[in-house]
Write a structure and sequence with these properties.
9 helices
């Protein structure tokens, strides 16, 4: 990818990527506060300010590299702190706190799909081409983040959902993986395995969006 083309792509991608990671993390903090944990609120992490959620590697470097290499658009933000023991019903409420992030990504994917459809319906517009590209990236990053985070691997959201739903003994055994979860994820990401797992799931979500919006 040429330098000028890369700069243009990064400029267009910046807004949907920052929205995707910021709202994902803020959603966790907001739902945690709703269920009694004030940790994220007290640390100022229930915020739409992207600077509070940016991780230099996961939010900036990795998405740029994946855009350059043409692979699955991949990245992460600085996790919002959640003290699950402060929730009113820790095991049950953990489910809703964990699902808040992927749910926000689903909502954003739907919103970007609406923008894509509206822009596609009115192509004779100076802003049509960059808006279509921005909406396409917005759909892509949110679908990938949603599917990725729903994998049942602690500390991903899907891992916390599994811990919430499993009986106590199995939940405890799964939760013990959490300190190693990110190392496992990085290993999967640098091998074809993560792509093999995510691609069919991402394809299913795209098929749903196509049925809903005809895009």
């Amino acid at each position: 990818m040429q330098i000028d083309q890369l700069i243009q792509t990064i400029t267009i991608a910046a807004i949907p990527i920052l929205f995707a990671i910021t709202l994902h993390e803020a959603a966790h903090g907001y739902v945690a506060r709703h269920f009694g944990d004030m940790t994220a609120y007290q640390q100022g992490r229930i915020s739409l300010n992207p600077l509070r959620h940016i991780d230099p590697v996961g939010t900036i470097l990795l998405p740029i590299l994946t855009l350059m290499l043409g692979g699955i658009l991949f990245g992460w933000a600085k996790p919002v702190p959640v003290n699950f023991s402060a929730l009113r019903r820790p095991k049950q409420d953990m489910l809703w706190v964990a699902l808040a992030g992927p749910a926000s990504n689903l909502a954003m994917a739907l919103g970007w799909a609406v923008l894509y459809k509206l822009t596609w319906m009115f192509p004779d517009n100076y802003f049509a081409e960059p808006l279509l590209e921005m909406a396409n990236i917005g759909i892509k990053i949110n679908v990938v983040l949603m599917v990725l985070n729903l994998l049942p691997l602690p500390p991903l959201d899907g891992g916390r959902v599994a811990v919430s739903l499993l009986p106590h003994r199995q939940a405890y055994q799964l939760s013990r993986i959490e300190p190693y979860g990110m190392f496992i994820l990085i290993f999967l990401a640098i091998t074809p395995i993560l792509g093999w797992v995510l691609s069919p799931l991402i394809g299913m979500v795209y098929q749903l969006l196509s049925l809903l919006f005809g895009i």
